[in-house]
């Protein structure tokens, strides 16, 4: 089934930001995909590129009823200068009729000006990430990211689409990190069903769907899958019953996948941290009437860990130096589960 990709251009567009994505989709088509690329501008007229070469355009943005993907190219003239309001309005009109929106480098400034990135994670060229964050404080700008896709990790369809996007953009997958997770402290008898379903969806459904979608690609590359579990998946913890259930599921999923693929060329492992200083733990709230003596066994004696500690372990587990590690649950908890 063919998919329509609309590449949005404008006067001053960076030629590389047009040629790069066009070549990626063409390469994907050579491997059996069916992307139909259309280059469009506000008025459907030829535009001037960053190097002075005219780019022939035959389609107006507003003339398309719908598109699977709308991708906005970048350009140096977008940074610190007014953006064509007609271009902004055209994107606002087509956004509800497209399945996904994307930008290349500074094209993020156009999507931001149109209000299409509000409340979302986004990235842009590293040189201009700070300016984007200052100009649009309602956007969660990730300056070090190469590619960001905002979506619902608990949705099987979105997980598979994200993996397809990754393969389309980079050609292969070598390492997969199942990192997304949420946590709450709560009295088990008071947990609303909606919160229960949300935590199961993010912490269990998401990692399972990501594994489903990526393992065929890992088999091609001889890559590996690293799940982020928790000490909560290895021990009982008062007031985090649902969280313990989800992380126990990740532990068992890791072991089961390792056995199912033990005769193949891929590796599957998990890292089980204790408390780590992240946005999740700094915003962690505890009911006022808990018995802190019951929480002591999993609070530990050495304080909170740092995200860099887990990142370093992840890098090792995913590297060729860890070729002998398969099906392991690697604790990095400063002794919490030692006793």
Structure overview:
The protein is α/β, with parallel strands linked by helices and 339 residues long. The protein has 2 domains: 3-141, Class I glutamine amidotransferase (GATase) domain (Rossmann fold, 3-Layer(aba) Sandwich), CATH 3.40.50.880; 174-332, Rossmann fold (3-Layer(aba) Sandwich). Helix content is 36%, strand content 17%. The protein has helices at 15-30, 85-94, 108-113, 129-135, 156-170, 193-221, 241-260, 279-282, 292-295, 307-318; strands at residues 3-8, 35-41, 47-48, 54-55, 59-60, 67-72, 98-103, 121-122, 140-141, 175-178, 224-228, 267-273, 276-277, 305-306, 329-332. Strands 5-2-1-6-7 form a 5-stranded parallel beta sheet. Strands 10-11-12-15 form a 4-stranded parallel beta sheet, with helices on both faces. A two-stranded antiparallel sheet has the order 3-4. Helix 5 runs parallel beside helix 6 (193-221). The protein is globular, with a radius of gyration of 23 Å. The termini are far apart. The model has no long low-confidence stretch (mean pLDDT 90).
